[in-house]
Amino acid sequence: MDNIAIRVENLGKQYRIGLTPMRYRTMRESLVESMSLKSRSKRAAIKEEIGTIWALRDVSFEVYKGQVLGIIGRNGAGKSTLLKILSRITEPTEGYAEIHGKVGSLLEVGTGFHPELSGRENIFLNGAILGMRREEIERKFDAIVAFSEVEKFIDTPVKRFSSGMYLRLAFAVAAHLEPQILVVDEVLAVGDAEFQRKCLGKMNDVAKEGRTVIFVSHNMSAILRLTEETILLDQGRIVLRAPTPQAVDHYMASGFSQSGERTWDIDEIPTEAAPFRPIALRVSDHNQRRLDRVRSTDPICIEVEYALDAPIKGLRVGIYVQTTRGEFVLTSFDTDSTQQFERYSVRSEGHYISKCTLPPDFLNEGQYVLGINASSYRVKRYFQDENALVFTVDGAGAPGKQWPERRLGPVRPRLEWNIDVR
Amino acid sequence: MTEPSITAQHDEEIIFIKPTKGWGSLNLRELWLYRELIYFLTWRDLKVRYKQTVLGAGWAILQPVLSMIVFSIFFGNLLNVPSEGVPYPIFAYAALLPWGVFAKALNDTGRSLVSNRAMLTKIYFPRMAIPLASVFSSLADFLIAFVVMLGLMLYYRIAPTSNIWTLPFFLLLAVITALGVGLWLSAMNVLYRDIGYMIPYITQLWFYLTPIVYSSREVPAQWQFFYALNPMVGVVEGFRWALLGTADAPDPMIAVSAIISVVIFISGMFYFRRMERTFADMV
Question: Can you list the domains of chain A with their CATH numbers?
Fold first, then answer.
C-alpha cells in the first residue's frame, strides 16, 4: 500500500462530439423520446449512444513509487485524456484515481509564456504556473538559464527568440520541476535532434532519481530508453501492460495485418488534411503482388494513393521507413529529384499514385514501419502518419546468410569486398 | 473539483480524483495555497499591458483624464449639467476613478478565461486565480489615476473631507461587484462566446445607470429606490462624499446595495466553481 504512487480504478471519460451535425437528429429524437414517455434511464441510455464518445473507459492500473511507466497508443487512443485526468485538468466521467504525492504535469512546454515578456520574466511566470514557489525559482534560476543556453538573450522579449531558443528555455523551466510524481506528454516531439537528445538525457536523470514518472510518447526509442514497463492503450481501453520491449513490439505490429496495404476511411482523416486526402499505402514485390512480407534481395515497391480536392502548391508526398524500435531508416519524397520538383511545383486536383522502389539488398531482415507525410515545405503539413503500415523483410539469400546470426543495423547492403593478400 | 487531503501518518498529500456532482465547495484554502500564482498572473497582466507603447503606464492616467475632458466639454459646458457645487471636471473625475476600476475589472475578468485558454487546457490550478488576477491588475491603474485626483484637488483647492478613510470600503464594494459579475460572465463566456460580445454593452448600459456624468440628485424621487439598488451608485456617491464633500452621506441604501453585491459575488463564486470542471473540455 505504501509503495503505491498512483492507483487508477475503472476510470472513464465521456465526451460529446459532433454537436452541430447531430443537432437536428438529437432534437427530433429528444422530442420523440419525451413523447414516448420512456423511462428516464432508458432515455439516458439512448442519449448516451448519440453524439458521445468514450475517450477512456474501464482503465485501471497502479504505478509504484519510483516506477517509470510508459503509455503508448495511436492518436485518439486516450493517452492525453488519461494524462489530463491525472493532472486534474479535466474530471473523469466515472471511476476514480488516487495520487500519493505532489504531481507535476508537463503536457506542453512553455504554458503561459508571454511573447512580450523577457526570458527572465517568463522563467518566473512559467515556474509559478507549473507550481514552483518563488524562492524555488530564484534558487534554480541560474541552473535553468544555463540549461537553456540562452544566457545572452535572457532579458530579450521571447517573441524575438528563435523557435529553438524558445523551446530550450521552456523545457529548461519544466526540467527543473521537482514533484514526486511527474506526468509528461509528448514534449519531446518538438525541437531539433540535439534538443531532443538533451531533453531525453534530462528525463533519464529524472527517472534515475527515483521519482515516479508517467511518460507518454510516440517516440518508441524514447519509451524503450526511459521506461521498463508500458501500457498500451487503444480506443480508450488498456490493451496490454507489459515490459516495455514487449509492449512496443505488440504495438508496432498490431492492427496492421492488412496484408501490405493500409487504407484510410474518410472519418479517419483529420480535417486539417484537406485538400489532401490519403487513400492507401501499399507494399508490393516486383511482380506487383501486394505483400506484407518481402524479400531483402528483391526490390520493394511502395505506393501512396491519394486525392487532392484542390490544387496544392509545393506539395511533396513521401514515406518514412522506421524500425519497430522507432529509429528512422529513411525519409523520401516524390519530388526529391529536381525534374519532378519543377514539374510538380503546383499539383492540380485529382487522383494520384506516387510510387517508388527500394532497391534490392537494402533493408536488413526484420520488421519495418512505413509512414507517410504530405506537406508543403515551411507552409503546411497536410497529413502525417508515421505508423501507417508494417511489413516484414525476409533475409533469405541476403549477404552473410551462411551465418544464421542476426545482423546489427537496419540496412544490409551487398557490399563489394576485396581481400588483398600482401 | 478535487480536494487534496493530508493523511495523518505520512504527512503525504493524497489527491482523490473522481467525478463531482452538483454544487461543490469553494475550496478557498487551495486558492490561498496558489497565492503566488495569482501574484505572478497579476504581475504579468501589468507588465504586458503597456508593453511596446510610448506612453506606458501614462495610459492609466490618460484614459480617465481624456474622458474627464470630453465629459466636461459636453456635459459640463454645453449641457450645463449640475455638478453639486464643485467644478464639473473634478465632479466627473471623482466618479471616473471607481468606475474605471469597475469597468476594467468587469471587462478583463469576463474575457479572462477564454484568453487564457492555453493555460486552462494544459495545467491544473484553481481556475479562480485567473479572474482574480484580472481584478488585481485593474487596481494598479486605479492607484496611478488616483494621483491625478490629488492634483485636481490641489488645483481646485478642495481639501479631502475627514471621511476619506471610508474610500477603501467603496473601492472594495466596486471590486466585489465587478468580480461577482465577472465570475458569472467569464464562466458563461466559456460556454457561450456571445457573452464576450455582450460585455461592452453591459458596461455601457451600466455606465448610464451610474451617476458619473450627472448627479444622482437628478433622478426622480420615485425611482431613487430602484436606482440605488445598483451598487455602483453607492460607490460613486461615496467617492464624491468622501473626497469632495458633495452628495449626501451614504444612507441605509448603501447597505442594501452592498448586500446585493455580496450576493452577486458569492453566487458568482459558486457558479464559477460549478462550471469550472467543464472549462478544460469546453473552452
Answer: 4-10+60-253 (3.40.50.300), 261-394 (2.70.50.60)
In sequence order, the 6+-apart residues with CB closer than 8 A to the CB of A74 are A234, A255, A387
Q: Which residues of A touch B43 (CB under 8 A)?
A: 125
Tens of pLDDT, residues B68-79: 999 999 988 888
Give every CB contact of residue B158 below 8 A, 6+ residues apart in sequence.
Answer: B86, B90, B243, B244, B245
Across the interface, which of B2, B37, B52 has its CB nearest the CB of A88? B2
pLDDT per position as a tens digit, B12-25: 678 888 888 777 77
Give me Rg for the CA atoms of chain B. 21
In whole angstroms, how far apart are CA A155 and each of A140, A338, A395?
17, 44, 58
B163-195 b/e (C-beta count within 10 Å ≥ 16 → b): eeebbeebbebbbbbbbbbbbbbbbbbbeeeeb
Is A129 in contact with B125 (Cβ distance < 8 A)? yes
| Contact status of B15 with chain A (Cβ, < 8 Å) | yes
Distance from CA of B45 to the nearest CA of A (A): 10
Is A95's Cβ below 8 Å from some Cβ in B? Answer: yes
Q: What is the ipTM of this complex?
A: 0.81
B283 touches chain A (CB under 8 A): no
> The whole model's pTM is what?
0.72
Look-up of cell digits 484537406? A274
Cell representation of residue B69: 475632458
